[in-house]
Amino acid sequence: MQVDVDEMRSGANRSYNAASFAMEGADQLSRATVGAGIFGSFAAAESFHGALSDAHSNHIQRLRDHENRLGVLGDKGHKTASVFVEMEERNAEALRSVL
Questions:
Q1: Would 19 disulfide with which of 42, 64, 71, 94, CB 3.0-4.6 Å?
Q2: How big is the chain by its Cα radius of gyration, in Å?
Q3: Contact 60, 24 (CB under 8 A)
Q4: In the prediction, which pLDDT does 85 show?
Q5: What angle do CA 19, 20, 24 make, to 5 degrees?
Q6: Among candidate residues 61, 60, 79, 77, the one with its CA nearest the CA of residue 17
Q7: pLDDT tens column, 43-64
Q8: Angle at 92 between CA 98 and CA 89, to 5 degrees
Q9: In the prediction, which pLDDT does 97 show?
């Protein structure tokens, strides 16, 4: 089995970058709001505003969830690469001791 730990670490770093973009998106989206009366002051406009506000909140939460999951993925990628490097070093040492 051959493992490219540099590529693993590169992928983990790309996951961290994507997590950062998701965080920036969530932060920017959370700073934007739609005023309550912008669509008017009748029942359908208020209902639409409520639906829009709910969708806005859901998008922010989904971006935060993506940020978290992508960060965890990056952590796991680096951890896995380290485990392979350590295993390779142990195995190489074991072979040297036999020879």
A1: 71
A2: 24
A3: no
A4: 95
A5: 120
A6: 77
A7: 999 999 999 999 999 999 999 9
A8: 140
A9: 93
